[in-house]
């Protein structure tokens, strides 16, 4: 309705609010196996549709179907399942540790485990991720010790970052995991810059940038796309659309573009949407994008369509802004349940083995936790030295810091 002379301010609203019935009828889900798999050197102008569809491999019956299927062996898939189960178990224990006051803060991955676990397996040694706080699966799937992650979460005497980072903001050069910055979207410009440097020095390593749906509203995201597209930087540009940015629904940052993947089209960047709760689809698309980067074909933007089942962080209460049962209504299911079903369907897994694996994994996580707690927790046991806070920034400590250190007597 067009009223002459009266302007209206438009603010997008989510379909439902607390108390309402969850409604995902606006999420169009193509059949598994129905989206084509183009050659990696395809002309981006011919695959614009992929920014508006969803690449899926696992169908409702748990079968792997279509052109994106068939890349992973039984053993690789079993390993993938174990990684996702480990991350879920790790999350549950650390969330509990936060409630027990052993750390100040925690952020879970519940429902999004496939994204980071499967993506890690598409990279090669030496490649570098520029992650946010919800991609710990990159470390778990690369064999980074859980004890070290816990030491960081507890800021204890064995914390490799010596208590100088917020809990869960890990860093490991060896595992291709760039130090997390709490300032969101900085990951994008850093990843593109790192990728450009890799190309300038004729290296073979590629970068992966990570961002959430909400953070794509930051200008760093857009600046990064300009540089990535102009210089064909060897980078995979990941957008994890988990439907929420704390209490803000994804429609705010998405604006009128239809999908987050569509943001890449204006830059001429091949842009794909993938079912983020489908381990096989995530891996296949990540592999496709990584191969393009490595073959000098430039950046690819990938939107993972998923759902944040847990709270944003240990400081958040989602019942204030979305219906309680919304996660149950999410039409793409649970990534662990779906891979489990596929493996049973393949004849290499069973309910009994799954239950047994769950118990074994929990035992491993608890053993790691015990070991980490021997080095201290937030309010008990060993702590990093106050001296550490003066170190690690300057090669040569400037006089004013030396003076402060002397005043502190450390
Ligand atoms: C530049 C910047 N602005 C705001 C914040 C505060 N903040 C922390 S998390 C968050 C929501 C991010 O949502 P999204 O990008 O969708 O990621 P998700 O938490 O869903 O994984 C905000 C606004 C921040 N950390 N950095
Ligand atoms: Mg989000």
TrEMBL record:
Give the keywords, sorted.
Answer: Oxidoreductase, Thiamine pyrophosphate
Top-level division of the source organism's lineage: Bacteria
What's its catalytic activity?
A: N(6)-[(R)-lipoyl]-L-lysyl-[protein] + 3-methyl-2-oxobutanoate + H(+) = N(6)-[(R)-S(8)-2-methylpropanoyldihydrolipoyl]-L-lysyl-[protein] + CO2
The terms under GO molecular function for this entry are:
branched-chain 2-oxo acid dehydrogenase activity
List the Pfam families: E1_dh, OxoDH_E1alpha_N
The protein's Enzyme Commission number: 1.2.4.4
Q: Which cofactor does it need?
A: thiamine diphosphate
Root EC class? oxidoreductase
Domain 2-oxoisovalerate dehydrogenase E1 alpha subunit N-terminal: residue ranges: 7-44
Q: Which PANTHER family match?
A: 2-OXOISOVALERATE DEHYDROGENASE SUBUNIT ALPHA, MITOCHONDRIAL
What's its job? The branched-chain alpha-keto dehydrogenase complex catalyzes the overall conversion of alpha-keto acids to acyl-CoA and CO(2). It contains multiple copies of three enzymatic components: branched-chain alpha-keto acid decarboxylase (E1), lipoamide acyltransferase (E2) and lipoamide dehydrogenase (E3).
The entry assigns this protein to a family as follows: Belongs to the BCKDHA family.
Q: What protein name applies here? A: 2-oxoisovalerate dehydrogenase subunit alpha
